[in-house]
Amino acid sequence: MDDYEFEHLVADLWELQGWDADVEQQSADAGVDVRATQSSPYRRKVLIQAKRYSDDNPVTGPNVQQYAALKQQEPDTDESIIVTTGRFTGSAEDRAKDLNVKLIDGKGLVDLIGGLGA
């Protein structure tokens, strides 16, 4: 699965949870891979960064800092989320807590896929 297919997988997972999800065009994504919105029970919008990484190439604290800015790129954005096939470093987890970025690592992704029967 290439990066673009992984972004579509992430969008499909959000759609299975009742969101409208769109994969951004690679040339114009400005760091946003998936934009997901939900209108019920109230309007919410999340911007998702999808990283197809191995455990040998974890998402780091500086990566989280960079992606935390996704929320400021668009009005009415409620959350920034990073989904990876790999893992997050300890500093990434600390930065995510400080910056209110939600993280889903490879194990969490497998759990999500299993929980949705995808």
Automatic annotation (TrEMBL):
Keyword set includes Hydrolase: yes
InterPro entries: Restrct_endonuc-II-like (IPR011335), Restrct_endonuc_IV_Mrr (IPR007560), tRNA_endonuc-like_dom_sf (IPR011856), Type_IV_Methyl-Rstrct_Enzyme (IPR052906)
Organism name: Halogeometricum pallidum JCM 14848
Domain of life: Archaea
SUPFAM superfamilies: Restriction endonuclease-like
Alphabetical UniProt keywords: Endonuclease, Hydrolase, Nuclease
Keyword Nuclease assigned: yes
Pfam families from the UniProt entry: Mrr_cat (PF04471)
GO molecular function: DNA binding; restriction endodeoxyribonuclease activity
Restriction endonuclease type IV Mrr domain span: 1-113
One GO process term, biological-process aspect: DNA restriction-modification system
Protein name: Restriction endonuclease
